[in-house]
């Protein structure tokens, strides 16, 4: 589950965790999209990872899902930016930034965007 921006699908296609499925949290109140998310609810072999650069908002989304009975919810600390720095081989997409410049940017700026405009 990733941010709620209008460009959520493009952001996902450009830069995402290998094997992930995107469910922008802004879609949670749309029945058909929430029903699609429920197919992953409490499955032993599936986890739902809330990925938001703003962890405060991510915590809120995680809490809502937990209150709706989801037990396999995890919040990715540091967001996708930190995940890319720590696990670059697990990132896929059409517009993956240069790892070394991105790592330098993330380590020297806080908070960091998913993909800085100048990296």
Question: How would you sum up this structure, described in words?
Answer:
- The chain has 119 residues and is mainly alpha-helical.
- The protein is 39% helix and 8% strand.
- The strands form two sheets. The protein has a two-stranded antiparallel sheet. The chain has a two-stranded parallel ribbon with strand order 2-3.
- Helix 3 links the parallel strand 2 (48-50) and strand 3.
- The chain is globular and about 40 Å long.
Q: Which terms would index this structure?
A:
two-stranded antiparallel ribbon, 39% helix, 119 residues, mainly alpha, globular, Oxidized Rhodanese, domain 1, 4 strands, 5 helices
Topology record:
Layout: H1 8-14, E1 16-17, H2 31-38, E2 48-50, H3 55-67, E3 73-75, H4 79-86, E4 91-92, H5 99-108
Parallel strand pairs: 2-3
Antiparallel strand pairs: 1-4
Helix pairs in contact: 4-5
User: How far from one another are the termini?
Assistant: 25 Å
The CATH architecture: 3-Layer(aba) Sandwich
Number of spatially distinct domains: 1
Strand-residue proportion: 5-15%
Helical proportion, percent range: 25-40%
Q: Structural class of the helices, strands and pairings?
A: mainly alpha
**Low-pLDDT runs:** none
Given the C-alpha coordinates, what overall shape results?
globular
**What does the average pLDDT come to?**
82
Short structural summary:
The protein is mainly α and about 120 residues long.
């Amino acid at each position: 589950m990733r941010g709620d921006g209008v460009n959520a699908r493009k952001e996902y296609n450009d830069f995402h965790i290998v094997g992930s499925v995107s469910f922008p949290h802004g879609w949670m109140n749309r029945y058909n999209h929430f029903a699609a998310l429920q197919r992953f609810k409490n499955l032993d072999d599936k986890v739902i990872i809330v990925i938001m650069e703003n962890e405060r908002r991510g915590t809120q989304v995680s809490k809502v899902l937990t209150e709706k009975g989801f037990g396999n919810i995890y919040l990715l600390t540091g967001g996708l930016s930190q995940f890319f720095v720590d696990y670059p081989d697990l990132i896929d997409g059409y517009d993956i930034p240069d790892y070394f410049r991105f790592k330098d940017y993330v380590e020297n700026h806080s908070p960091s965007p998913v993909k800085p405009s100048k990296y």
